[in-house]
Amino acid sequence: MQIQPELHVNASIYSNSFPRFDRPKVIGYIGLHNLKFCKTLRDKKVCFDLNLHLDKVKRKPVDRDVKLDDLLHFLLTQEHRLNFPIQKTINDAPIHCYRGLMTCVACTPYENTEPWKIVAILHKGNIYLCARDTDEKKSRNRNMSEKDKQFTSWGFKFEQFMTSDHPEANPNPDVPVDETEEFSLVLTTKLNNHKIIYGAEMDAIRCDKVVVPSPPSNDADPQTVLEYLCDKEFIELKTNRHIENNKQEINFRRYKCKKWWCQSFLVGVDTILCGFRNDKGIVEELKVFTVKELSKQSKKYWSGNVCFNFLDTFFTYVKRCLIRRVKQKYGEKALTNLHNLPLVTLLFEWNPEAHVQVNEAYTYEDDPILPELFIKNYGSRELI
């Protein structure tokens, strides 16, 4: 049952000037022991065999459903330190999600193949957005070919060729990759009037321009670690097949560059290092891109203005749909008593060539996103 007009996706609607987007601020981290460093950041010829120890790789489970678990654990354990104000209206409610969800939404006006589903949850004055696998993606994951798995593993192996565990150490690719190892930042920013709190997996700290000291120990207090992380320059590491003709160049600019730009811009990353490989998985060339030049050189195919204006509009749409849902179920007065409301959930769906739709087909009980421990304990302090 549709409860709100559909959200149109056509890129031409969102070509206004770039919305206000604050420089992201680091407020936390997840997996400090997996923090990596990159000393080589320049264009050069190399010979990296991404198949090295491929037979011993530890892969992420294809069917692993992470939901928002790591971010929620961080919020729960750090609630006292963060001391976020309790919001009384949905329009002021902070949005919690992962960077991947925002990248997916932001790129939607230019997407023509990948549908998506997003669950929105209103709980104690906070909004949680969680991407859910579509039927197509579930099927693709279940039937992933060995070649597809190899492509994924090549990306992880390239990171191992380029990064080390300490600023002064050299990379050691002569060991199998553990693809489950992740280091993430938790950041906050504002996109126009939307406060966003989000987790983002980060590839490495750049340490080729300045001397970077060793990181604090894993048991250091969070403030010490934050002071260390906040002034470091992070980079993105990517791989791509060699570009050999005009069609490949156009596809690279139209699709890869758009996603790379969104991913990087959302977390304040200014530099991307790409390893260009052949079909056998041998990286033969390193090339450095600045995020600014990615946007400039690809402007005939996509616009960052469109991406971020649509993301801003989607967040507004989510809030309006939640307001309408609360009024329908609990009445107008409930909008000023969010802290005592039961969970309110909505499912947002989009398919290529269509509009974003919201409906009540989603049943939270069949697919709980927030663990009971989190529901019971987070945001339980009294309203002031």
Query: What is the 3D form?
Result: globular
**Relative strand content:** 15-25%
How many beta-strand runs? 14
Biggest sheet strand order reads 1-7-8-4-6-5-13-14
Based on secondary structure, the structural category is alpha/beta
Share of helical residues: 25-40%
Euclidean distance between termini CA atoms: 38 Å
List segments where confidence is low: pLDDT < 50 over at least 5 consecutive residues.
Answer: none
Order of helices and strands: EEEHHEHEEHHEEEHEHEEHHEEH
What's the number of structural domains? Answer: 1
What value does the Rg take, in angstroms?
A: 21 Å
Q: Averaging pLDDT over every residue, what do you get?
A: 94
What is the count of helical runs? 10
Largest sheet: 8 strands, mixed
What's the short version?
One of its GO terms (cellular component) is cytosol. With 384 residues, the chain is an alpha/beta fold.
Structure description:
- The protein is of the alpha/beta class and 384 residues long.
- It has one domain.
- Helix content is 30%, strand content 22%.
- The chain is built from ten helices and 14 strands.
- An eight-stranded mixed sheet has the order 1-7-8-4-6-5-13-14, with helices on both faces.
- A hairpin with a 4-residue loop joins strand 11 (271-277) and strand 12 (282-290).
- The two termini are 38 Å apart.
- The model has no long low-confidence stretch (mean pLDDT 94).
